[in-house]
Amino acid sequence: MEALNADAKALANSAQSSVRSQAHDSSVPQSAVLFSVALSTGLPFIVFGFSDNAIMIVAGDEIESLFGAKLGLSTLAAAGLGNLISDVIGLGMAEPVQARMGRWLKTKPLTIQQTQLWQTRAARFSGSSLGVSIGCLLGMAPLLFLTQKEKRKV
């Protein structure tokens, strides 16, 4: 029984020293690591921005042409409803996209302190902002294919 207690104490001391060493490791990650944080954060946002904008444009156009005149919807109201649809679809896509991207993109593990540094937060914000911007611009592609339609009567 005493040997078991000694092993438990040794294990607890080892865990505490490990936590202490991680807590004090707040060194700024290297530029390559910060770049990989930005990249791994940004790529899923490219997919999200693309799908969000593309679905919103297509859905908004269809809502306007199908229901716009009948329900008295403005173009902006149809776009808002299209945005609602694309946001709901985007929420459903978020987890599978992040899971797939997580398998492709491996980043160096960071300590808790390193993830809270302003440099790491800035890399994460920059990656997600740039990613969603690129995705939204690419998601405007359906505008190239839409033709002016007459409003259909439902």
TrEMBL record:
Q: Where in the cell is it found?
A: Membrane
Where is the chain membrane-spanning?
32-50, 71-94, 125-146
This protein's major location comes to membrane
What InterPro entries would the database entry show?
TMEM65 (IPR019537)
Quote any Pfam family the record assigns.
TMEM65
Q: How does it sit in the membrane?
A: Multi-pass membrane protein
Q: What is the top-level taxon of the source organism?
A: Eukaryota
Q: Is Nucleus set as a keyword in this record?
A: no
Q: Which UniProt keywords apply?
A: Membrane, Transmembrane, Transmembrane helix
Q: Report the protein name in the record.
A: Transmembrane protein 65
Organism equals: Coccomyxa subellipsoidea
